[in-house]
């Protein structure tokens, strides 16, 4: 799911300026003929038509660029409810639809009034009334337009999550989660020596296996054509066709390639009742997406959290995920960690290469289990 394509949402002033400018340009570019009152009616009618079309197209495009929340995959539904004021979001999308209907309503009404008007001096007044009505409609939804643009900025930070084997890189802020992601997946996410460098969910991928290419030669029998047929005289008369055939070389690609999705989530402070938005996203990834969790420890003292605090968070994590999710421990910043702290560390931990190997084996086991299930 990619939210990066949602375009900016313009405010009411910009929309009105665009619609009125296009209306003027249309009226100036088109030649109208006939009696003076007919020309005035045609010109004003053309202008209100352009205003209606321009605003309807822009507002509909804005509304359609946003997804319907309840039709999203479960993870994104929960992420939207976590990060947006969903009632306001839905109300704002509905407001755009309402505005399109009101613009069309006024366009039909004033087009009819202008067409029936016989006083040339009143036609301009009707057109001005229409402009005022349209401006009022757009101003009424200005708060909704502004909210949708704020929602767009938030939604553009959502990760492009795939449905595949997923690993959650987890731990306190500034312990080195993003650095580990970069080592495992070769990505270049932002890294700095302060908490909450990770402002959203970073994603990386490990490629498992490779695509295989096979060349296959297939036989293609030559056609048999009867003598005297419409396709011309057959070279073999009524005899049986020859048994020889042409050879066709075909290239077939079979893929053994599989990806492991790595999600580097914003650091959590282990306080559910006071979680900020970033921390809550981390918990959502952990609960909804992770097949495996890599817990990152920093024993160097440079992250701002004691070893005891990190131990407590690991214990909490294991109690939450239970036995269903494998938890691997990684120790970061070993070059900055003294030997005593490393020697006293009681948990089994793995290097980045070892973790990568374990993940590849887990994916291979998952694949073989699926193959057995399909074949049984």
Give an account of the 3D structure.
- This protein has 376 residues and is α/β, with parallel strands linked by helices.
- It has three domains: 12-155, Four Helix Bundle (Hemerythrin (Met), subunit A) (Up-down Bundle), CATH 1.20.120; 166-209 and 258-375, P-loop containing nucleotide triphosphate hydrolases (Rossmann fold); 211-255, no CATH class.
- The chain contains eleven helices and seven strands.
- The chain has helices at residues 12-29, 36-65, 74-83, 86-116, 120-140, 142-155, 177-185, 277-288, 307-321, 339-344, 352-375, and strands at residues 166-170, 202-208, 211-221, 245-255, 258-264, 292-298, 326-332.
- Helix 1 (12-29) runs antiparallel to helix 2 and helix 2 runs antiparallel to helix 4.
- The longest helix is centred in the first third of the chain and has 31 residues, at 86-116.
- 27% of the residues are buried.
Gap between N and C termini, in Å?
A: 33 Å
Annotation field: number of helices: 11
CATH architecture of the largest domain: 3-Layer(aba) Sandwich
CATH class of the largest domain: Alpha Beta
Examine the coordinates and then state which fold CATH places here, giving the name of the CATH topology of the largest domain. Answer: Rossmann fold
Using DSSP, what is the number of strands?
7
Q: Major sheet, described briefly?
A: 5 strands, mixed
Helix content: 40-55%
Question: What's the number of domains?
Answer: 3
| Average pLDDT figure | 82
Poorly predicted sequence stretches spanning 5 or more consecutive residues? 190-196, 227-236, 371-376
Structural class: alpha/beta
Strand content: 5-15%
Order of neighbouring strands in the sheet with most strands:
2-5-1-6-7
